[in-house]
Design goal:
By secondary structure, the chain is an alpha/beta fold. The chain is built from 12 helices and 14 strands.
Length: about 375
């Protein structure tokens, strides 16, 4: 049997899981059509609506990680030949473009340097120029630590008859996500980031406009497993069997969402901001700067530049072996140049910030 060590998870995900969530995962497994389980599903939907800040009826948790959520929104809303405008300023914008293309979209990329955010005015100009069926952008780019403003894009998309899709994988539960206020038509997240539930589910939400687009499709959704036209009948009042839901994972998500709402969203956002400020101040004393655009750094995912002459991978290995602390490496053009220090959900604590700063101080000092 493999001995699983105790780690402090300060990477780009997963985050540490509270004991209450781990205990919930171990509750007795019951049937996925059991009346008690159906009641739990209803409560999950209600809690997700609060966290997404939406009244969308089609709000639920897809069986699969955040990437399954990404595939869900594109597979259901894109038909072959549709023009899709995608903002690409990191790995996950690039993945959006890839997934849209695999669904048969004609993809137009709006690109920005890694670590920067898009000017919303430029995005709006691109919408007016391309006239796409769908506009898609990443709210919290996990590969670069960039926090993208999106409050004006939904209105512009709607004015040009487009749907607005938003990647909230890293932001949900750690920074404000305002689905209705921002005019977002479809969004997805993951359980393993700021919700501090193990990976395995992807919360999604779809507006009435998005569901109308789904109903008007000329072709079947290319993925049977992710086809919302069927899945909605399981999460809705019909309770029609589609696939066997991951029952114990949904226990865990229910408990994780309960914890989020007990703390209160504003309190949670303030905690993430305060811990990010503490980390930034401590890193500055070590001569470590941020790779993300000034004023647009994510509070839950800190992408920082590796100092000159420092063994990037060696420091991460020392942190893991000597201190049990996991941080993330850079991806893509940031590979070998950046560390990604996550302060997500349950992991975002004063103790953890103090620990990683003390460990880095000792390692870099040597």
């Amino acid at each position: 049997m493999i001995n699983i060590p105790q780690r402090i998870l300060l990477g780009p995900g997963p985050s540490d899981t509270p004991a209450r969530v781990l205990e919930a995962l171990g509750r007795p497994t019951i049937g996925h059509l059991d009346p008690v389980f159906l009641q739990l599903m209803d409560e999950i939907r209600a809690k997700l609506k609060e966290v997404f800040r939406t009244s969308n009826e089609m709000t639920m948790a897809m069986s699969g990680t955040g990437s399954a959520g990404m595939e869900t929104v594109f597979a259901n809303l894109v038909e072959p030949g549709d023009e899709v405008l995608v903002g690409v300023n990191g790995v996950f914008g690039g993945r959006m473009a890839d997934v849209a293309g695999r669904c048969g979209a004609v993809v137009e990329k709006l690109e920005a340097p890694w670590g920067t955010v898009f000017d919303q005015g430029e995005v709006i100009k691109a919408i007016e120029r391309v006239k796409p069926k769908i506009v898609a952008i990443v709210h919290a780019e996990t590969s670069t630590g960039a926090h993208q403003p999106v409050d004006r894009i939904g209105e512009a998309a709607r004015a040009n008859a487009a749907l607005f899709l938003l990647d909230c994988v890293t932001s949900l539960g750690g920074a404000p996500v305002e689905i209705d206020k921002w005019g977002v038509d479809a969004a997805y997240s993951g359980t393993q980031k700021c919700l501090s539930c193990p990976p395995g589910l992807s919360p999604v939400t779809f507006s009435a406009r998005a569901m109308e687009r789904l109903a008007a499709r000329k072709q079947k959704v290319q993925s049977w497993y992710l086809d919302l036209s069927m899945i909605k009948n399981y999460w809705g009042q019909e309770r029609a069997y589609h696939h066997t839901a991951p029952i114990n994972m949904l226990y865990g998500l229910h408990e994780a969402l309960t914890i989020v709402l007990e703390e209160g969203l504003e309190n949670r956002f303030n905690r993430h901001r305060a811990m990010a400020a503490m980390l930034k101040e401590g890193l500055a004393k070590l001569g470590i700067s941020y790779a993300s655009q000034e004023g647009h750094s994510l509070p839950m995912l800190n992408a920082v530049t590796v100092p000159d002459g420092v063994d990037e991978a060696g420091v991460r290995r020392r942190l893991l072996d000597d201190y049990g602390i996991e941080i993330g490496a850079g991806l893509g053009v940031f590979k070998g140049k950046v560390w990604r220090i996550g302060l997500m959900g349950y992991s975002s604590s004063r103790r953890n910030v103090a620990l990683v700063l003390a460990a880095l101080r000792e390692i870099l000092g040597k």
